[in-house]
Amino acid sequence: DCAWHAHKMAWLPIDPLLLRSIRLLRVLRILRILKFEWARLLRDLIMTLIFSLPPLINVSSMLLLLVFMFAVLGVELFTFVAQQEHINNTRNFNDVGSAMLLLFQCLTGDGWT
């Protein structure tokens, strides 16, 4: 009888997004650990991370704006530069997307080794 009801419930029209959200809420059960006194340092660390998110978003958006501005400037100045060893199909200023990728690679030091 129990198997029959489980089979009937499997065909209920439930939105998969709702099921995914419910599963995500199960992950939040780990936050119950923070109620214990010995987890005070962990709680402080998590609260520090949460409080640092707005300034981090501000700095990231400013960096994105600067990279975009220099990408547009690079496209205007260096679009027709001939391809060479380091200026190839993926690293160039032919369009804004490629220019932003190239500038991000320069910011992170990609390809310097």
Automatic annotation (TrEMBL):
GO terms for molecular function: voltage-gated sodium channel activity. The keyword Transmembrane applies. The keyword DNA-binding does not apply. Keywords: Membrane, Transmembrane, Transmembrane helix. Residues 16-113 form the Ion transport domain. GO terms for cellular component: voltage-gated sodium channel complex. It is found in: Membrane. PANTHER family: SODIUM CHANNEL PROTEIN 60E, VOLTAGE-GATED CATION CHANNEL CALCIUM AND SODIUM. This is Ion transport domain-containing protein. It comes from Haptolina ericina. The lineage of its organism: Eukaryota, Haptista, Haptophyta, Prymnesiophyceae, Prymnesiales.
